[in-house]
């Protein structure tokens, strides 16, 4: 057993969620230790940020670092439909002027390192590489962790609160069988990187472009990065991408060759690096917290890459959890009720983004909607920038439903249930060396 009994919080995982919660807690005077199993920098996907990350970056004192970085500035998002028609850009600052409406396209190996270094600068005790073997409990209450020691053996370390920010390995969600699979969003992705590919000039250089496949089975992301590369990937239903087809390279090229917009954009460059594949099954935990423990980031849930909300949800869950934990420590209350007080608000925000994702997959046209309801373009832009946690954006849903065809049914909601039938097949793709692990 560790002789250090003064820790307030142990954080498992040093990605954006773990870095955020630990930094904010340290700012509030908590003694925080963070365990990260990998040595940074390390590869990770999830490279496009959205503007609402600004407010968390401000609290983290990360804005000066982001502004001084080489990351490509992102001012907008554009959509290309199945016929190849490009939408007008959704410029974030047209709705909310100022620096808060500019964000970045990041290389995650660099960004995650910056975030973890920032946590260190704020007084977080970062142990890296260090693998947490299990969370320790006394009854139903988390009381610490067992950590693998360098050179062999293990030690137990106690703390008042344990935060699981372990990503999709999600230790506590698996332990308590809390995972709820989304009834709709069972997607997969194949991606790679292209050097010297086309990018727009000026303000549009850093735009994320979402390109619908001509057969409407899926969509492409197109994300320019500062090392003269573009992150390019196709997302579609898992069965469509991976069942009865060839390897990742073959499927990627078949989809590319069927999409004139992608061919055009990649024609000026050449591929750099290998092909990557991952499950994008969407899931969420039925709880955000228990007595002495909290789930944040991908350890709580994963939505969908469509609107680049992943890093925002990691940062926001880390921020909300940090405030609940700090207040609980001050009051001597680390109960599930106190530590999870932010869950309802957070889930409501995720539900809004999820609905926008589902509407797109069900045929929603941004162009048609804005043409029919031009006064609501700002509200749609609010959703796209990640302004998810305020009721004002709910004004869009009634008009959106007015455009439904007569036979359209409601978007299914979350439900308890078993994983999709092919979840074991998906997990075969999800090997330990997978960078998305």
Automatic annotation (TrEMBL):
InterPro entries: FAD-bd, FAD/NAD-bd_sf, Flavin-dep_Halogenase_NPB. This is FAD-binding domain-containing protein. Residues 7-227 form the FAD-binding domain. It comes from the Bacteria. Pfam families: FAD_binding_3. SUPFAM superfamilies: FAD/NAD(P)-binding domain. It comes from Gemmata massiliana. The lineage of its organism: Bacteria, Pseudomonadati, Planctomycetota, Planctomycetia, Gemmatales. GO terms for molecular function: FAD binding.
